[in-house]
Write a structure and sequence with these properties.
The structure is a single chain. The protein contains 15 helices and 15 strands. The protein has an 11-stranded mixed β-sheet with strand order 5-6-7-8-9-10-11-12-13-14-15. Strands 1-2 form a two-stranded antiparallel ribbon. Helix 5 packs antiparallel against helix 6 and helix 13 packs across helix 15. The relative contact order is 0.09.
């Protein structure tokens, strides 16, 4: 692999974020021309960019840029946004327009990109004692999501991220809380909740002592049987669990969760097999498992990144061999640059089916392809013929209306459909839950 030199000291890795002020330098090393560099910078004004030396040095094959999958996963691409929008912002950059003028143009584009899909702000934020809880989401009966305020960034941003609006500096779009006592009171009034998912951003951007202040109080709650942490740190900065100054403290915290009788599940995002290949990630996985954590893996299916059955079967098999549990293949959500990454549902199902066919039973814990819609997680079970009509067979893996979970239903087959809102019922009547 060709490596971009001079961005890290691999003998003693220390995290340092690479942001848009170095974007031109990096894409310039990939051989981009002046206009191409400006176009990429224009996209980065709309979609947030951040990475680090591990991703740049260890995961990207610079000889294959721009087609390298990890490069596309992390670096903005000129064609991720409508050409007219890119041209307008690029023109402002070329003219040296004031930052506020560039930001205003970027904000216009952002508002058209569905910054908070699936009713996250309108439907998922609960209230307690007459006050809204802006850093909490309660969509499904058993699970509450908590957004710790110090964990609302990441070691590196994914270009597909459905929570990109967390990172653009707009307080009206950001979900975050520092009030763990309020969460405890809410949970006490909702005994049906059995697990809390810390999410972001990425909770693993926090130091161990900060995370402890959120996690430790929850260990007192008998109603909780698991604590989950959504993270891409294993992919983007595995040193968090190996050589970072607080790595041992983090693992001791995880051990305490396990000793308390609760499951500690790391919900790890791996988008491509290359993220599993470095010695650093292998060591990090071993240490997490030794601390009592279970690791479940998930990622969306994305054009240009992993829209190939062999990529998924290789990834799932490697994960199982490392002691991880394949959990979800998602459909890319209807936000941000969805048009760039989207895969039609019929193709997505075939990719899932062929990958599922080619792995052992131990890998077949995985579910998908699944759409995280406003009403719930809708799984595409196949394309079948019912009453002489070709249809999608679907079911809810999880749903706001718990009674709809697991019940099969059918949608008219549409080879171009890539999201639930584009489907219509195959037979007389509506879908079991009507919110797409």
């Amino acid at each position: 692999m060709t490596v971009v030199q001079g961005l890290s000291d691999l003998a003693a890795p220390v995290f340092s974020a690479i942001t848009s002020n170095r974007l031109a330098e990096l894409v310039g090393r990939a051989g981009f021309t002046g206009d191409q560099v400006t176009a990429v910078r224009a996209v980065a004004e709309v979609l947030p960019f951040r990475t680090n030396s591990y991703v740049v040095d260890e995961l990207i094959d610079w000889s294959a840029v721009p087609d390298d999958p990890i490069y596309r996963l992390v670096f903005p691409q000129e064609d991720m946004l409508p050409p007219a929008d890119v041209a307008r912002i690029a023109d402002l950059l070329n003219k040296g327009a004031a930052p506020r003028e560039v930001t205003a143009a970027a904000n216009e584009v952002r508002r058209r990109l569905n910054p908070h899909p699936a009713g996250q702000l309108e439907l998922n934020i609960p209230s307690h004692a007459g006050a809204q809880m802006p850093g909490v989401q309660h969509k499904y009966r058993e699970t509450v999501l908590f957004f710790p305020k110090q964990g609302q960034t990441c070691h590196s941003y994914c270009t597909y991220c459905f929570r990109w609006a967390q990172f653009i500096g707009d307080a009206d779009l950001k979900m975050a809380s520092g009030d763990i006592e309020q969460l405890k009171r809410y949970l006490a009034d909702h005994p049906e909740v059995s697990n809390v998912l810390f999410t972001g951003g990425d909770p693993m951007i926090m130091r161990a002592g900060v995370l402890r202040r959120y996690v430790e109080p929850l260990l007192e709650l008998d109603q909780l049987d698991s604590i989950r942490i959504g993270t891409k740190a294993l992919s983007y900065w595995p040193y968090k669990f190996t050589t970072d100054p607080d790595a041992d403290d983090m693992l001791r915290l995880f051990e305490e969760v396990s000793r308390s009788g609760k499951d500690l599940s790391v919900m790890a995002h791996f988008s491509h097999p290359r993220e599993l290949e470095t010695p650093a990630v292998e060591q990090a996985v071993r240490r997490l498992r030794s601390a009592g954590a279970s690791i479940r893996t998930q990622a969306p299916l994305m054009r240009y990144i992993n829209d190939d059955p062999a990529v998924w079967s290789t990834m799932w098999s490697k994960q199982v061999s490392m002691g991880m549990v394949p959990y979800y293949m998602f459909i890319e959500r209807d936000t941000g640059p969805q048009e760039y990454f989207k895969v039609p549902l019929a193709d997505a199902y075939e990719i899932f089916r062929r990958a599922y066919r080619d792995v052992s039973g131990l890998c077949r814990t995985v579910r998908g392809p699944s759409m995280s819609t406003t009403s719930g997680k809708v799984c595409v079970d196949g394309v079948v013929e019912v009453a002489g009509e070709k249809v999608f067979a679907l079911h809810y893996i999880q749903c706001r209306d718990a009674d709809a979970v697991g019940r099969p239903f059918f949608a008219k087959f549409d080879p171009a459909a890539s999201w639930f809102s584009e489907l219509v019922p195959a037979f007389e009547g509506d879908f079991p839950v009507g919110i797409a």
